[in-house]
Design goal:
Elements lengths: L1 E7 L5 H14 L4 E7 L10 H15 L4 E12 L2 H13 L4 E6 L7 H6 L2 E4 L7 H19 L8
Parallel strand pairs: 1-2, 1-4, 3-4, 3-5
Length: 157
């Protein structure tokens, strides 16, 4: 199973890039993984919130193909424990999922048209995190989930 992390915005912040890269390289032990940073247009700040989300949705739709199983990170999504996430990844692999995409939306969230296409909506927390930190949390949690499925020592129960 291939795992992709799609994130609307700028490249990884230098202050956390190394940590994101570390967890991403650890995930490679279990699955093919890559990051895709989806840049918005330079005039995005001049757009209304609704138009900005629609513009971002268009960029996301261009990248989706029929093999994409989309997991949208959304504040109204389902919360999961690390063990639940491990079970989720195992189920997706067992179902023959080819490409599992975790999408981090832009500053205003994810357009409803994309949420409607998402097979799953996941909330990391009821707390609000900086966009760049969400990337790190996501990479760490996916690594943790794989380590749980392999019964490795990283996750302590």
């Amino acid at each position: 199973m291939k795992i992709e992390f799609w994130s609307i915005g700028k490249q990884h912040d230098p202050s956390i890039r190394e940590a994101i890269e570390e967890y991403t390289s650890r995930i490679k032990k279990y699955a093919t993984v890559k990051w895709e940073i989806i840049s918005v247009s330079k005039n995005a700040n001049a757009l209304s919130e609704i138009d900005q989300k629609k513009s971002e949705a268009k960029l996301i739709l261009e990248r989706m193909d029929r093999d994409t199983v989309l997991v949208a990170l959304d504040e109204y999504g389902k919360e999961m424990s690390s063990i639940n996430l491990a079970t989720f990844l195992t189920q997706k692999a067992d179902m023959g999922t080819k490409k599992l995409v975790f999408l981090i939306g832009g500053a205003f969230g994810i357009d409803q048209s994309i949420l409607d296409k998402a097979k799953h909506k996941w909330s990391l927390s009821k707390l609000t995190f900086p966009h760049q930190l969400v990337r790190l949390i996501l990479a760490e949690q996916i690594y943790r989930a794989f380590s749980i499925t392999k019964n490795e020592k990283y996750h302590h129960q």
